[in-house]
User: Fold these one by one.
Assistant:
Number 1:
Amino acid sequence: MARTNPPDGGGSGSRKTSDDETTHVRQRVLAPPKVGLLKDFKSVVQETFFHDAPLREFKGQTKSKQVLLGIQAVFPIIGWARDYNLRKLRGDVIAGLTIASLCIPQDIGYAKLANLDPKYGLYSSFVPPLVYAGMGSSRDIAIGPVAVVSLLLGTLCQAVIDPNDNPADYLRLAFTATFFAGIFEAGLGFLRLGFLIDFLSHAAVVGFMGGAAITIALQQLKGFLGIKTFTKKTDIVSVMQSVFAAARHGWNWQTIVIGASFLTFLLVAKFIGKRNKKLFWVPAIAPLISVIISTFFVFITRADKQGVQIVRHIDQGINPISAHKIFFSGKYFTEGIRIGAIAGMVALTEAVAIARTFAAMKDYQIDGNKEMIALGTMNVVGSLTSCYIATGSFSRSAVNYMAGVHTAVSNIVMAIVVALTLEFITPLFKYTPNAILAAIIISAVLGLIDIDAAVLIWKIDKLDFMACMGAFFGVVFISVEIGLLISVAISFAKILLQVTRPRTAILGKLPNTNVYRNTLQYPDAAKIPGILIIRVDSAIYFSNSNYVRERASRWLREEQEHAKAEGMPPIKFVIIEMSPVTDIDTSGIHSIEELHKSLEKQHIQLILANPGPVVTEKLFASKFAEEIGEENIFLSVGDAVAACSPKLAEQQA
């Protein structure tokens, strides 16, 4: 690495005039004005929980206006309903009818993933969308059961209660989990703790969703192949063993023909919709067309007599009250809380991500905390009305968006269609083959496998890719909950690694500038002889303070050895560039003190450059600024180098 000669003591230019003298007067680093404890605490709380200033609209308003704004904050429908018109209604009705045609067959299949009767899937697309339409802030999201959450709920509940041996208690546990999922979601929003869902990183979600999609598709082989005896496990090894064990006598060729034919039809419809955006309605209506045609075919041929498994009876009528079925005590009470928290977290992450995606596409804002309250409330109300966990569905939301939706009225239209279906049409689903439901679910979940996103994650961050693959293989080869646990664990491990092992860099001076940059990033950045400039790219806390001190000492040792080998002057000044250091605690101060004392013994001066206000305040409060000398704290690296150069020249002379 090239080294430049140290700049002269006066910096660039001579100091002949009084104006020049004024130009080179050094500006001292000042401690920020002292702030009272109460004011400081208020500032921290405000930035942590109220960074979006949610009460700004209330300032300067009359009492009556503030009351109206308060009601509107809880029920956003009051705000946008005033500007509603026939043009918007037309778009919302078309979108609502389109997503209803998609959700009805999906809901029947998703209920089976949760080990529940098909009617509960339809129930969950009636009440929750109505609640969300009044309280949600997203205009585009479509509410209802989704594949991943259905599988997760079914897997977790099945581990506690066997749905075949004890269906009544299993159903009660599902309602209990839904109730506490809603409490968990609404609680996070009410306490403004929505940032907690960010701990489930994008990479982990991509891996988890991909693994869940594979698992869901494998689970559908039971209905797709007409297998009657099937494993209750979800890992790929157990599922494939179960599939091949039934290959000799357990597969039904009529079922396979029905499933394969309509799966091909659904995939072709999806391909047409992707190729031509104007034909978005083709893949949206294809599942319902498949159900109608296959049901009619089975009815007229009585294929159910030939071993083709069918849905059979679905109760007519809208949601019955289920408040009395929720466990509020007993051995299943705590299990309901645990399952609800896990499933609620995944449902919340998916819904908020979908809402933010479409809000960005249409250039409007959503309030994440209000979304959580809305999602939580709809699940609490849903649990009291025979629904299981509902959330935002990406496939339905995409169809909703492409159908020209304007407001959440599309969810109301969808809910009305589902209610009419429950009241009048459910008997017609009696002969619907399970194979068509399997085909619908397989075609729906294939879109959850995002290979492009995984490749991009690999290119950007290898640790993120590990989290992605950990979640994927954990779900596929072990279980859904283990995959989720692995993804969260790797995400936390990454955070801990970044906190405990922050990046550090040696800085050099770019040619013909007074700018200092990382010598690895800019090979032409020259080091200053006799001066070592180190940048710490993180806050310095108890978790990394010893590492920062040891890494700085190692940099110094390596540079001293290099200088000796090259016949260069030994290091006499160590400058720590602190602009990226956003905060420092007592352990960090103590570590810097130890570094200072260690350098003093080697007759090397420690210099600090550009500490921020928080760090500067703590340096002065701890008296370390006095110990190191205020004259050794500079506004910039350039100032520090300029001040060190004359001293370095004197020592070398």
Number 2:
Amino acid sequence: SLLPLITDHPLGFSDSMLSFCLQKKPLSAVIKEVCDGWNLPGPENYALQYTDGVQMYITESVSIYLLMSDSDAGVRCDSLKELAGVSTDMTFAQEFISRNGHLLLVKIVEDSTDNVIMTHTLKAFMELMYHGIVSWENLSTVFIKKIASFVNAKPTDASIQQVSLDILENMVLSSQSLFLQVKHEITMERLIAHLQVTNQQIQTKAMALLMALLQTAGDSDKQNIIHSSGSVQDEMAHHLYVLQSVTLNHQELRMRTPLDCYSQEQRDILHGLRQAAFETESENSLSNERRRSLCAKEFKKLGFSNNSNPGQDLVRTPPGLLALDTMFYFATRYPDAYSRFVLENSSREDKHECPFARSSIQLTLILCEILRIGEPPSETGSDYHPIFFSQDRLMEELFCVCIQLLNKTWKEMRATQEDFDKVMQVVREQITRTLSSKPTSLELFKNKVNALNYSEILKLRQTERLHQEEILAPPVLELKERLKPELLELIRQQRLNRLCQGTMFRKISSRRRQDKLWYCRLSPNHKMLHYGDVEEDSDNPTIETLQEKIPVADIKALLTGKDCPHMKENKGKQNKVLDLAFSITYDVEEYSLNFIAPSRTDFCLWTDGLSVLLGRDMSSETMRSELDILLSMEIKLRLLDLENVPIPDSAPSVPKPPSNYNFCYDFSQTEQ
């Protein structure tokens, strides 16, 4: 009943004949013979070539027959491999799933122990599920446990683990019930272990699954993630950045919540700060008026502006209750440092004391701004702090280091209350400069930020100011304009060379990013764009292996972002890759080649290179950055001999010509 197109066709194939053929020949050969019997030309790409779908149905029927039969393992493996290839076609997938073919794949996953068969089965299953025809919620518990076991197992076949991580990520994002099952089955230690392997694909898939778990759960314990010392790829860096943003944004609620003066718990924390700083006599024996006076005096020493009602200082949001949390953490985690800070400043003259509470509130706000707490993660962001992945409670620990830095800087600047804003600007600069060096641990951050004292900040500012004045001098600006054409030509040649090397792109479905890859490169003579599908392990395929090509002369326009055809078709679903999308239209406007760049850098390189081919100006931010760097280097080299020589704003005046030119020497007389 599963083979109507085979058993009823004109050649009269029977089940036994088909079984015999499949024992002797591969699936593609059997399909070719059947198609030849029907006088259908061309054996290539059966599932995609014919609109009538006849050959596709044959492939589907034969595939199902093979999956159900007890055929040779090698033949079965070949069938599954071909099935994974043809499952990318929507029409084939609909027919295959309508005949419960996907359930047969689930059954194979549940029962099979052969790694090769398992790899092809999972890939075929994933290709079918990408189309969104059936729900993920229909999967059995046995299937979920089997997939999770591949992730939890010790290092095994990388292909199986990669696809398994991909499947689990889709389950987590599809429904809350599947999220709970996956969360229950996955061992977090093994998931984090996948982040430490050298295989970048497994690293990326593991991070994607971890992000899906965090985003779906809304709250999760942050684990200490140790990543390799090698360079992190753009997609991996983006996942690390998103993980950092999601985790730090858990502080947003406290940051935007003002202190409630009627909350007994919050009042107790305030009084706990006061009592931890000052050893006072028993307050129970004091009268109410005497107790209030004592509390007001001590809150003033702590640096609160409103000493009679210190809670008013924490009503402003941000930083709100987060400032109270950081102060209390410092007082309880490092009591000696806290007491030393408060007592040292309370013993100074009033105008020279560094107010702890006021400084803490402002410092907490600065850290929130630097760490971007409260900002949703960018779709293309990749700027993460390695220190985040080596330190629990990063916000609080950074505060403890920086509040002591603030006190040190205050003394170095010999600041008074009027200099409060200046001190905070210097502290912000110290923190920002230190974090920009990407310290990998809190201890390293502490050493670097303390070494960057006030005198070092002044030196850096002076150097930057002199450099700015130097590069803005009119003669230097004129020299820059003369150098620009030569450097722009250098960048153009680099872009064209990069297009000649080619880039691997990923195909995008309406549901999510797929693992199907294609490659595109420019011919050495810059006249043809060659492209074609490739396998994942392909390394810089040659032009001869890329089947399709487009003459550069036929390219009409370059489109980017929301103007691209493949972005217009799925506006709501493609926001995540909008900044990486570009297309070229050719021949006539209906035809276009659509790209999703692997990274923002690749996007800039390709759009610049295509602009050069079309005779247009390059306009990417990468080009502007590179031009600035090249100009700066060239200017410094040209001005190397003029170090410490003042450059005038205008050129020296040309002297007047001499009254006569009778001053040449007559060599002829000497020769005689």
